[in-house]
Specification:
The chain is an alpha+beta fold and 402 residues long. The chain has two domains: 53-204, PH-domain like, CATH 2.30.29; 225-401, no CATH class. Helices cover 38% and strands 14% of the residues. Strands 1, 2, 3, 4, 5, 6, 7 and 8 form an eight-stranded antiparallel beta sheet that branches. α3 (172-186) runs antiparallel to α4, α5 packs parallel to α8 (332-349) and α7 (303-323) runs antiparallel to α8 (332-349). The longest helix has 44 residues, at 238-281. The termini are far apart. GO terms for molecular function: actin binding. Residues 277-287 have a biased composition (Basic residues). Residues 1-40, 201-241, 272-295 are annotated as: Disordered. Residues 59-196 form the PID domain. InterPro entries: EPS8-like (IPR039801), EPS8_2nd (IPR055093), EPS8_PTB (IPR033928), PH-like_dom_sf (IPR011993), PTB (IPR013625), PTB/PI_dom (IPR006020).
Amino acid sequence: MNGYETPPLASGIFGSYGSPTNGHGSQSPEPLHQKAKSGAKALYEQRKHVTKTSINSLTDTSQYQVEHLSSFIVDRKDGLLSVEDGVRRLRLLEAKGKVWTQEMILQVEERSVRLLDLDTQKDLEYFPVSSLLQVQAVMNSCSFDSLLALVVRETGQSKPDLHLFQCDHIKANLIQADIESAVTDAKGGKERRRPEALRMILKSGRKEPSRPPGRPGPMSSKTVRSSATSTRRTRGGDTSAARVDRDVQILNHILDDVEFFVMKLQKSTEAFSELSKRKKNKKGKKKGPGEGVLTLRSKPPSEEEFVDCLQKFKQAFNQLGKLRDNIQNPSAEDLLHFLFSPLRMVVQSAGGSDLPRSVLGWTKSRLEWPKEHYFPPFVLTFRDGWEPPLLPTAISRENRKR
């Protein structure tokens, strides 16, 4: 798949950026004509309803939702000769915050393993079972606790690729058993092993495991977080203190979502650059190994995701205005200054200022909105589903209603 290690990146959104655009051209997206929806929330809800596992015993086809973590070329020069070497390399990347997961479908058939786009179900990669040199589950070796390793050498490849996947929904050892049974049956054994393997997976694989404590999500680096000072104003008693704490929590969640989006843009840029380099260097029109996943990784965020991020920038500025006397290390002024670098990158990646200008609530405050016109409310939502806590006064009103 990618077969390369990405260049060093700034950890968090408050660093420097090596590339101002995402490499997908500068054509501006079409302006929005309707009220912008929260793209992050919509994507989150969509992914919740995706079928995690599908097994068709009649066609011997099974599908598993997995997270592609990284791919390496198995090469002595790089000190990578085994699955264990690859897992060690993965740990190093994770420690640097450079593991970017990509959700996809791993489909096992009688004579092949395919990787499919989670949304479109289109083929990303196709591995005949004859190209599978090794299939290995690595359990509880790091924060990625259910790793599936595929060592693949396709026709014409001089060196194999090692692909690593996190398997949350069905454990990696069960998927390993499925793939190995397909490989064995393809070799023409007397008894077919695959039907029994699929029955075992159906019996034991329906439980939805949760991430273990401390397991990072798709991005392992953290933003510089704000903190309420010990000298916060106390006018209004507990209500004032609770309001400051609530505003700080909202700001931190906004910064997390902005960082996640910026990291997604960076990874998209890197994948696009690597894909372009591979296409330039190869001969012929046939898709090379790993280009399918690189194509998926290079896909820029949707217009709705850009809008959601821009709205959160505006909300972050509002939060900093409210918290300027209550946060330090970094201060509100420092955070305001640092936010302009990622904002510039997002605007440039969107193809210019046309899209930001079209975002309702981005260019006008409520006071500037004509009184006779409806002002569309902005409901702040976060990709992890977090909701701001109610203030004590709001809790009291709720209790009185009951």
